[in-house]
What does this fold into?
Amino acid sequence: MNNRITHLFGVQYPIVQAGMIWASGWRLASAVSNAGGLGLLGAGSMYPQVLREHIQKCQQATTKPFGVNVPMLYPDIDQLMQIIMEMGVKIVFTSAGNPATWTARLKEKGITVVHVVSSVKFALKAEQAGVDAVVAEGFEAGGHNGRDETTTLTLIPAVKEHIQIPLIAAGGIATGQAMLAAMVLGADGVQVGSRFVASHEASSHLLFKQKVVDAKEGDTQLTLKELAPVRMLKNPFYQQIQEAYKRCASAEELKTLLGRARAKHGMFEGNLEEGELEIGQVSAIIHDIKPAAQIIEDMMQEYNQAKNAVYF
It folds into this structure.
């Protein structure tokens, strides 16, 4: 396949593996890149030296393009960006912050910059900041999300109507059929998160992966809008949040309840009771754990079959 996204990144397929915290290490990123997609390291859960090690290992494991996702709400952002530039990373996805902060400096180093947005307003700001493409992420997505609850089906054509740069769709995409639908709506490619959590190469804990596979419709919820909206699986920790809302807890109380390392405890260490389990609504149709390369192959087969069935 050859389109604006495959040309921009130098990849075979317009499939981006999301840079998810506690899931997207060098094994997953390199496996996706080797299979023809674009693998991303998730810097949000990495200390600077850990990111350096993952970049080195990814460079050793693949000769194909890969990138780093940097959520700008996390600490050590200056150090993370410095390492990225020092080590010759060619593609950076930024999120959860102002794209104008880093885009010009990264592009001066010859780095392709993509920013993740949840609305037309922020897509336009990203384009004005000079990014090379945007990821428009719908309400269905796991992890940190937009406050407006705009679904992917609505968000993609709305953003497409207003921007000129390439558009990547995200949120609720785990199959080739969904990929085709997103591209019919105007996307040039897709970013896939939850499906790659349930892969052999994801660094997330096996217990969390199995929890994703076991998830049913309605098992996730977007919550904690007072802090940073996040979609998570309903578990005892989630129930603690709901009890806090019932007693009209303040934002400060919610922050105390969230504490530190909740996501690490849940997704990386496998504490399914007290951890924060971030995943998308599409987990309800993910039924197995398989190699990342198989996920790419299956998606492209499904995409082509769906395209042939619709465009006869």
The chain is about 40% helix and 15% strand. The mean pLDDT is 95. The chain has two domains: 4-203+286-310, 216-282.
